[in-house]
């Protein structure tokens, strides 16, 4: 972000990206609430979902307008049960509020799973603060985090 001091959470995300050698552009997001379009300035908007497996978590990155397959995710992780933590648990696990969650600068470096449909895309994901997004190449993000690339395609959200 040019010309402004980023919020502490965005600064944490930026520091993590820099430490990983990951080129990220932090941009102000237009509008309030959930985006209504699957793309912003050509970048595919991505939701970062914190998924609990037992006592640990994983980040699942998937297109905003898609519903990923829980069955495919369970099969990939080799578990029978996964859940979504409540807002307090998600914050405790990541240091970020819902709607701002990102693996960048997370309180704990949980494993990252990238939906295969994001390969080759420029994406916009959470940056730790409401109204700010992190623009990055999905392939570079996957490499920086050692992310697993998995076909999680499910049904399209209505």
TrEMBL record:
Report the InterPro entries cross-referenced here: YbaK/aa-tRNA-synt-asso_dom_sf, YbaK/aa-tRNA-synth-assoc-dom
Q: Which Gene3D superfamilies match?
A: YbaK/aminoacyl-tRNA synthetase-associated domain (3.90.960.10)
- Residue span, YbaK/aminoacyl-tRNA synthetase-associated domain: 43-136
Source domain of life: Bacteria
| Molecular-function GO term, any one | aminoacyl-tRNA deacylase activity
- Record-given protein name: YbaK/ebsC protein
Q: Give one Pfam hit by family name.
A: tRNA_edit
Q: What is the lineage of its organism?
A: Bacteria, Bacillati, Actinomycetota, Actinomycetes, Micrococcales
| Coiled coil feature spans | none
């Amino acid at each position: 972000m040019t010309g402004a001091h980023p919020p502490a959470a965005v600064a944490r995300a930026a520091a993590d990206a820099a430490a990983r050698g990951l080129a990220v552009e932090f941009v102000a997001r237009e509008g309030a609430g959930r985006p209504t379009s699957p793309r912003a300035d050509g970048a595919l908007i991505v939701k970062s979902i914190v998924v609990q497996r037992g006592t640990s978590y994983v980040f699942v990155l998937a297109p905003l307008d898609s519903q990923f397959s829980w069955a495919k995710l369970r099969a990939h992780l080799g578990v029978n049960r996964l859940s979504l933590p409540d807002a307090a648990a998600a914050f405790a696990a990541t240091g970020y509020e819902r709607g701002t969650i990102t693996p960048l600068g997370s309180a704990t470096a949980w494993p990252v799973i990238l939906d295969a449909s994001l390969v080759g895309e420029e994406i916009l994901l959470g940056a730790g603060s409401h109204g700010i997004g992190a623009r990055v190449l999905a392939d570079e993000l996957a490499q920086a985090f050692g992310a697993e690339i998995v076909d999680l395609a499910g049904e399209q959200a209505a």
